[in-house]
Write a structure and sequence with these properties.
Length: 273
Amino acid sequence: MRLYDGLHHKDVADWHKDLALLTDSLRLDNFTELLCDTLAKVVNFQTVICMTYKKGHAPISIYDNYSPERAKDVIDAYIKGVYVLDPFYTAVMNDITPGVHRLVEMAPDSFQESDYYQQYYRKLTSVEDEVGIFIDLSNDVTLIISLCRWSGLETLPRRERNVLNSIFPMIRSLCREFWRLQASQYVDKLNQNSPVEMAFNTFGDGLLTDREQQIIGLILQGHSSKSVASTLGITPGTVKVHRKNIYTRLKISTQSQLFSQFLNHLAVQASHI
């Protein structure tokens, strides 16, 4: 079997050696690191993050290749609350089919104009393109292996996407077996990691209506007024009226101020965890 057109016999031999090494490492603490090293041999990426998600709980990171200092800025900030604005997180909560998915394909229509993208995603990570390998570890836990390509590296070409699709069944099988053998060291932390996704439902309590809280959540995730209207089954004009009322009641005038207030709310939520 060829991973992609033009694969030589030596490449096939090396790939099977890597699979054997991974199989032998399923009980070792460095399995995820070895897995990501193996992926780096067939797909180009500069950073990788392995994150597990369970509905009703905040995610936990099980591996990344950031420096400790950089990880504190990127990973810690994500886990403390901004993950609720991440399209990958939303996809998991919406029961996305396991497989290989690019962020750009599932992000809302105005994601790149959102403050989450501008102030967190691009500012902290410098990511140009991101592809996620979504693996259902169990009935209620999903692993996402995020492969990130920075500025200067072309967006994921079709050939590399085909490689990931072709090896996905094997990677999924290995990861599910890894989870069966090693889940005990992660499950307690995952179960104890309280959620902050209720932030959308509690942001502006006493000031905003339930509908306005819904609209805020969609806006912060990167939906345009037209997309918000389509999602909620209302007109764009109604969205604009709600948006004006939201700004008035929160005493703000820009979406950036809305984002800042929401981050402050997340911080308060996280402090109660």
